[in-house]
Specification:
- The chain is an alpha/beta fold.
- The chain has 2 domains: 187 residues, Ribonuclease H-like superfamily/Ribonuclease H (Nucleotidyltransferase, domain 5); 79 residues.
- Helices cover 53% and strands 18% of the residues.
- The protein has a 5-stranded mixed beta sheet with strand order 3-2-1-4-5, with helices on both faces.
Length: 269
């Protein structure tokens, strides 16, 4: 009886994971959540990589969940190809946090995508190397960069940050310059869209909800057991998504100006 129920749930999960998707998504978020899984008499840490999309009507949808032990360009290429094979032809903005290999992979499959790395995670990463005595002042100076009204002023503030702090924290400053092309995408948009894309907090909130549903299991006996639990959790979470994002009409108007014909579903090839 239990086996039959499990098989039915796994069948539904597979059907959900392989369903066809929309041709274009204005925004997608990608992040990982980690679990302990038993594998050949070992307990290993595996990641569930979750992709959340915002569709043309402003509704959120979890596009898929992929389980793996390690990430990299090859893994992410398979994920992006999966999305493409299920009907996705274009993504305007992909929001992510330091997922190794993802930027190159997603650009290969969706060459026009704009990438926005999570500013909050970049800040947290930076602060690991700044001792407490300097932290308050450094954060205040750093805030002038990511809170700047436009990219030109942000770069000027970053140059000032370098001039002031480079002798002490050159590696921290350099990481902002190296990653600037992926950190600065949000400057092209108004405040409302900036709040949506400059961090992956939207998806991290979903991850916290998933944790609530899976907290009774410290170790999952198999990948299928984890997959079943994740599917059931996402089904419950998505049932609450009955309304579009607030003020979506105004947000979509901004996207139409920025991305034009790419958002006309009838013109997607």
């Amino acid at each position: 009886m239990i086996s039959n129920i499990t098989d039915k749930v796994l069948g539904s999960a597979a059907e959900w994971q392989n369903r066809m998707l929309d041709e274009v998504y204005p925004i997608v978020y990608m992040d990982a959540i980690h679990f302990k899984v038993r594998d050949d008499h070992r307990i290993v840490t595996k990641a569930a990589y979750i992709c959340l999309g915002v569709d043309m009507d402003g509704y959120k949808d979890i596009l898929g969940i992929w389980i793996g032990e390690s990430e990299g360009a090859k893994f992410w290429l398979s994920v992006c190809n999966d999305l493409n094979n299920r009907g996705v032809k274009d993504i305007c903005i992909a929001c992510m946090d330091g997922l190794r290999g993802l930027p190159d992979a997603i650009k290969t499959v969706f060459p026009n995508v704009s990438i926005q790395s999570c500013i909050i995670h970049q800040i947290r990463s930076s602060m690991r190397y700044v001792p407490y005595k300097d932290r308050k002042i450094f954060v205040a100076d750093l805030k002038k960069v990511y809170k700047a009204p436009n990219e030109e002023i942000a770069l000027a503030q970053l140059d000032m940050l370098k001039e002031k702090w480079n002798d002490k924290y050159s590696n921290v400053i350099e990481s902002w310059y190296i990653n600037w092309d992926k950190l600065s995408t949000f400057f092209a948009f108004n405040e409302q869209i900036r709040k949506m894309i400059y961090t992956t907090n939207t998806l991290e909130g979903i991850n916290r909800q998933i944790r609530k549903f899976t907290k009774t299991r410290t170790v999952f006996p198999t990948d299928d057991s984890l997959r079943k639990s994740l599917y059931l959790a996402t089904e419950i979470i998505m049932q609450k998504w009955t309304s579009p994002i607030s003020n979506w009409g105004l947000i979509l108007s901004q996207f139409m100006i920025m991305f034009g014909d790419r958002l006309n579903k009838n013109e997607i090839i």
